[in-house]
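WARN retry 2 of 3 for item q-0093 after timeout on previous attempt; input resubmitted unchanged.
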Amino acid sequence: MVGSMEILIGSVVVLHLLGMASIAGGWLANYLGAARGLNVLVWGARVQLILGLVLVGLVQANKEPVSYAKIATKLVVALAVVACAEIANARTRKGKGQPALVNAAFGLMLLNVCVAVLWPNPEA
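OK item q-0093 returned
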């Protein structure tokens, strides 16, 4: 039987993954020249960061083991994604496009996915 906490954690994971999809979709839209692509990427990065922190809290509240080294690594990478996205967005508003920062945000998001999937979770 699935408890309410598992349902909540699963729901937040789904939203967290939608944030990742927003980063990827925003990057692709920006790459293809869409005017609003960068906004989607920025909001996706923000959502990823906030929901990642929420997920850590929920997992700890559910008394599941957490790898603090993995979480710290993912937090640093997520902060770098948000920083690249925010700086690129601010500079684009000033008329100075920053495709390198947009590409860096996308690449760092991919790195964070690799850390999440390839770094083993602690055993219960």
